[in-house]
Amino acid sequence: MDLRAKLQAATKEAMKARDSDRLSTLRLIGAAVKDREIALRGSDGDGGALTDTDLIAILSKMVKQRQESAKAYEEGGRLELAQKEENEISVIQEFLPRQMSAEEIATAVDTVISELEASSVRDMGRVMAELRARHAGQMDFGSVGAMVKGRLLG
């Protein structure tokens, strides 16, 4: 079952269960997907079809936005809003691939660096592109970038 079908099935289940919080989050996901399809429709001729990789990127972005919002709410003393963001994050993460552990990330970085025979910071773009292709949605590429740079410098 592809990711789009899983999202649609989960939305139907939430409707039947009358789970309004979960349904609200699933509808937000659906709206984000629809917005992305519409944007693609105008830019290329393939009709705006999204792949699972595209959907994972959308979901990852949504998680990151909610993490930033939750942090801001906590700093502002709005704990009920921070909790709402955390609940949305947990629903969104159900549809993302399992996140890799720190050890798995380190192994993946080392593997890609050795396979590409990367030896300097100039190769960082190639390494990051390969990691994104292999492990989309499974790691935070913001923090992985620092790890790759450290490996290539040291």
What is shown here, in short?
The chain is mostly helical and 154 residues long.
Task: Describe it.
This protein has 154 residues and is an all-alpha fold. The protein has helices at residues 3-17, 20-43, 52-75, 79-93, 102-116, 124-135, 141-153. Helix 3 (52-75) packs antiparallel against helix 4. It is globular.
What characterizes the major β-sheet?
A: none
| Number of E-type strands | 0
Order of helices and strands: HHHHHHH
Low-confidence residue ranges = none
Percentage of residues in DSSP E strands: under 5%
Structural class by sheet pairing and helices = mainly alpha
Overall residue-averaged pLDDT value: 88
Helix content: over 70%
Defining key terms:
154 residues, 0% strand, mainly alpha
Give the arrangement of secondary structure elements.
Blueprint: H1 3-17, H2 20-43, H3 52-75, H4 79-93, H5 102-116, H6 124-135, H7 141-153
Helix pairs in contact: 1-2, 2-3, 2-4, 3-4, 5-6, 5-7, 6-7
